[in-house]
Amino acid sequence: MRVRPPRLGAALVVFALLLAVPALSAAAPVQFGSSLAAAPNVAFGCEAEPAIINTSGDYGLVPNTKGPDCTWRQAGVWGLETDPRVSSVPGDGRIIRAEVLSGPNPAPLRIAVLRQIGTGGFAGQCCFFVSETAAVPLIPNAITTIPLDIPVERNTLKGFLAADLMGISAAVGTGTLPLRQVGPANIFNEPIGNSRAGAFYPRIGSIPNDSGGGRREEGVPGLEVLVRWTWCGRGDASCDPTVRPAPAPAVTPTAPPAGPAAIIAPTLARQLAQVRENQAFVKLLCGSDAACQGRLELVGTPGPNGPAARASARGAKPPKPIVYGSVAYKLAAGAKGSVAVELNRRGRALLSKRERATVTLRLLPKGGAASSTKLTLSRSGKGS
Fold first, then answer.
1. Are residues 225 and 358 in the same domain?
2. Domain that holds residue 328
3. Res 212: pLDDT
4. Residue 357: which CATH number?
5. Distance between alpha carbon 317 and the CA centroid of its chain, in Å?
6. I need a labelling partner for 280 at 20 to 30 A (CA). Which of 96, 243, 291, 296 fits?
7. pLDDT tens-digit map of 254-292
């Protein structure tokens, strides 16, 4: 049975009006969003949603119990006002194209437009539903180009700024979302340049109040939405339907970006691992796209004044982390299971005089990038 961890309250900061949008000429189309240079490295669809899962501020995935679909958008990049990874349009005009980089089992997507209204800075209300397209199927492991002709606004009316935002919507059980983890997924650890994604469950526009009263956004730091979209300013002939007939949504496969194919990495299903007979049972959850395979390690968590910090201060090479145990893992697509990690001498010593210890879990997916998160080892097994 899957248990939903307790939520600590909505922690996502709305980014649409926090990021300055440069003044742009209406003379040519402009692209925003992801560079589409790297493929998805997480694999989940609208059946899961992000939530804070522990008191350390880490985000994880919990089952979606709110509805049959969801909406995601690129909510900005922390501290970088000129980064193109935004979903806020720079002015009145039209969105004429969206490009989506998918994994092996992509969910069909709707292109959604939502609106934030406010006075700039942190003052504002988000978000209100404006429009959406029909669902468009995507090409697996490739960039899908979707021609569009969607009117959008960014203007001031009676002292209030109305800024349209571009998002994507999908249905539960239809495939995975075009997402990539690119930074820390922790509300207390937000380095400059950390990408953020925003989300709505169920999808924006599915509730009658979405157009009139609006709805608050939720989301998670560290994720990038793998969508690049093209905007044309008002007066640009390439945005004028009388000059350029508006095409119906369609898909055009293009060559995937150079580099390795998407690697499916599991996520940590529980922040506590019970230890029995010198084995730590780590619970992992594999996405629905493909099997998860690789190695995991339990290593020492460096402290602010530890050997690694002292070595960094001296400009020396940091020492190797202390390893308490490692093991290979392999999970079928969509599976959830416990992986038994045999504790070595140092691992057994760590728990010899105490019930609990916090370590770092390093996931090393086969052919993919390593990721780390905190994990509590418990000889009693008590806790969440």
1. no
2. 267-378
3. 77
4. 2.60.40
5. 32
6. 291
7. 554 444 444 467 777 788 899 999 999 998 887 766 678
In a domain, 39, yes or no: yes
Residues with Cβ within 8 Å of residue 150, at least 6 apart in sequence? 94, 95, 111, 113, 131, 133
| Of the residues 254, 286, 301, the one at which a domain ends | 254
Residues 94/151, Cβ–Cβ less than 8 Å: yes
Cβ atoms of 221 and 82 within 8 Å: the answer is no
What Rg, from alpha-carbon coordinates, does the chain have?
22
Residue 76, burial from CB neighbour count under 10 angstroms (0-12, 13-18, 19+): buried
Q: Would residue 278 count as lying in a domain? A: yes
End position of a domain, from candidates 192, 225, 254: 254
Q: What is the largest CA-CA distance in the chain?
A: 77
> Looking at the structure, do residues 174 and 203 belong to the same domain, yes or no?
yes
Q: What are phi and psi of 179, to 5 degrees?
A: -130, 150
Q: Which pLDDT value is given to residue 270?
A: 83
What one-character-per-residue DSSP string does 216-258 give? Answer: --EEEETEEE-EEEEEEETT-GGG-TTTSPPPPP--EEEPPPS
Nearest to 343 by CA among 368, 318, 375: 375
Dist CA 51 CA 63 (whole Å): 10
Place of tokens 């390690």: 297
Cα separation of 36 and 19, whole Å?
A: 21
Residue type at position 43: A
Q: Into how many domains does the chain fold?
A: 2
Alpha-helical (H) ranges within the chain are: 209-212, 307-314, 345-350
| Structural domain includes residue 18 | no
65 within domain boundaries: yes
